[in-house]
Fold this protein.
Amino acid sequence: MHYIPPKMVCETGILADDHSAIAGPQKDPLIVSSSQMWPPLPSSGGAAEEGMKEQQLYIREFQPSDQETARRIFYEGIKERIPSSAFRGLKYQPLLQCIYALLTLICFVVTNSLVLACCMPITLLGMRYYYSRKIILHHLECALRTDMSDIEQYYMKQPGSCFWVAVLEGKVVGIVAARGNEEDNVVELRRMSVDSNYRGKGIAKALGRRVLEFAMLNHYSSIVLGTTAVKIAAHKLYESLGFKHVGVVEHHTVPGMTHSLLERMFFQLRYHRYCLQLREE
């Protein structure tokens, strides 16, 4: 397989203030040309062009100077999943809901105290938060020691891979990576995250479409991604980009999990797999 160097894909800046500013249908992006998907930057030149770039969103190739900012955005984005996993995640765990209700009932029967029985759900939720925080932070540490420790080496210097940043108002406000697998002719969308202060501007969708363009130009057959995100907005974003939900893994394991009884009681992850088929093999 012949790869197009990342620079050839990344140098074309794009402008997008919101989702609607990115042209092209959502369900069948392959029938849209690159010029339609990625409007070129205005060529006014000089200081005027630089001023416009600072005010508008554009996607560019990762530079070594972006390392710490990219790590911060990634860290803060994953850390936000702690309360989501602890509290929202319980909605998708009916067995644990029943166990927690049973424990609350047992507490009331044994102690005959309504106050203690009311405190039991709070204690259980507190334990869920403790284990979510413990495991997710350990998972973050592992990521920051591996690919996110040297983005240049892991993504920019590897054939079929690339890392981009979204720049708005002169600041790096979002990140996304593409990691190619030559054997399967598949590219994985990874590490997508947007600074919480700049969400709702179509940045995540612009980043996702940049990976789509990269995959098409490098003749990959499909793009895959996996996520443990609980928020519905994240899943709607992937679907709006054309991804299809192809499966879910209950009790997903991440680095730092011990599979102890307490851990299974208070922390469970659902891993969703998505795929966007670009062409038939």
Summary: The beta strands are 58-61, 162-168, 171-181, 186-194, 222-227, 244-249, 271-277.
